[in-house]
Amino acid sequence: MFKKILIANRGEIACRVAATARRMAIKTVAVYSDADAGAKHVAACDESVHIGGSAPRDSYLRWQRIIEAAHATGAEAIHPGYGFLSENEEFAQACADAGLVFIGPPASAIKAMGLKAESKQLMEKAGVPLVPGYHGSDQDPALLQREADRIGYPVLIKASAGGGGKGMRAVDKPADFLAALDSCKREAINSFGSDAVLVEKYAQRPRHVEIQVFGDMHGNYVYLFERDCSVQRRHQKVLEEAPAPGMTETLRQQMGEAAVAAARAVNYVGAGTVEFIVEQLDGRTAGSGGSVGASAAHEVASVGARFFFMEMNTRLQVEHPVTEAITGLDLVEWQLRVAAGQPLPLKQAQLRIHGHAIEARICAENPDKQFLPATGTLQVYGQPLASHFERSDHGVRIDDGVREGDTISPHYDSMVAKLIVHGDTREQALARLDQALSEFHIVGLQTNVQFLRHVVQSASFAKADLDTALIAREEAVLFKQEKLGLQVAAAAAVALTLSDQKNGECADPFSRTDGWRSHGPSQRRFEFEFHAERSPAQLVCLHDGSMRLDIAGASLPLAFEANGSALSLTVGGEHQSLRAYRHGEDVHVFSPRGATQITAIDLLAHAGVAQHEAGRLTAPMPGKIVSFQVKAGDKVSRGQALAVMEAMKMEHTIAAPADGVIDELLYAPGDQVPEGSELLTMVV
User: Is residue 591 predicted with pLDDT exceeding 60?
Assistant: First the structure.
């Protein structure tokens, strides 16, 4: 076994590998960029080496520096994690040439499976069913357009060298194809160093089911069952679960054997995932325009389901903890043992499924604004009771690479943490997941925690009516949901304000700021902003010690007890157990019912501050200007694309808020811009 390994990655996967290595008495070396100098993964390892600037191309993608760091620290092997260099055959080969063990498949397997087009050609020769599409090397845009027209819309453009939803666009009609192609190619070249794409028929009601496979150097292969990853946004996974709901033993065996056959075809070694598109397991067919063609289908008559090879990820997957939860195994330990030349610890017949597991990806983003990535500091990072990086007795596990006070920057992926739950049944796992999400309190930036709760509570997810369009289908109950309301939010803000002031007040009553009077009931004015609407309020404190909150035309009796952030609140006769945190003027309120945010406006502090002029077009996050679609003097319509920005490895379009005329472009393509910067001006 290795004495020391270098982890060529960052964040939660680096912490995850370090935790397993520590348990196996293996020393670890972290690498870090300028932005990660104080990161959790650096502290989790025994040694650390600085490798460059904050941008991935200046640090985590510089494999020469990583190999130098391994030699300098005496590491014998390199674990690539996932993302960055994990599926880079040049890096894997360079490790071998440098006398280092690459903890993953051989470079030849990465090359064979890493390019989607070539891998599909290989699978076609092996008889594995494929989705109809174009997987050729000719990348002429006109040819790709013709192929898309031949396949029939909707089609999916996918970066051939990519993964993780980057460089991927669904196209519904011919007129949109070339613009989507340009965007895919830009995103692909920035993320993977290649702009080659493939075009496939886009099935509109598919399940996304993947099989975890493992191979060793002795020719042994197993599959560790399946994961359903159908719940996605922007072609990126949101929730993953194992086993797949509705899966039959017959279909499981068929898909598992197909996945192992795919691994054998390239002499695969280590952990890998073979991803399939699966038509509805209950026999329903794809929706209108979503048929993927019966001629290429692999029919499983006993359950009426068909599956098609999509791609193989030649690395450990983000969602691997759900497989660990249902098998009781440590897949990172398996990786290390296989890379050291040991045989697989178990045979296929020895593997069993125990219970049900679900993983939720907690990301810094705003779901109500098309999942716009967010940046900021984790002012509060409150977690549910859970174990970290391993299965827990109470069924809740958290994998993360951050701590309270850390900053989520625009340089890397927006994922903050992974929440994994396990139960005897899917129903038990669902209940545990919702409870754990309700106890995840993050203040300082936008996250998708409440959105995840809405998904988990939705009718489709609860009854396992799954497909990759679930989020769009359940849009009415997933977005812009307010579970607490103005009255509860305002009452919590008032209670937190009074509690904070009481704790900080001196004995002198004439120095108090809570509206105290020597006689008569005291009254205190508040001004709140809730979902972009102003609401004045008045708190009345009576002689008998009782309080009343007057807001939005209602007069509500108010009582509370406070202990730090914990509030026991009764407003209008309704009791609530809450947690409330202040961040500037914003008060963040969390409860078992849901969470919300309200702004308690200090009127004196804002006196004389001018309103922002209307129609400003500003950067919604720090990032780089990719392109402008307009020039000065152009007439534009409301909703028209004006500019494209890149941040957190994804492209985002800035659209016109109204009809008008472009006045001036304030930046040029390639410029880095901070959040809130005005990008261009227009006259409306």
Answer: yes
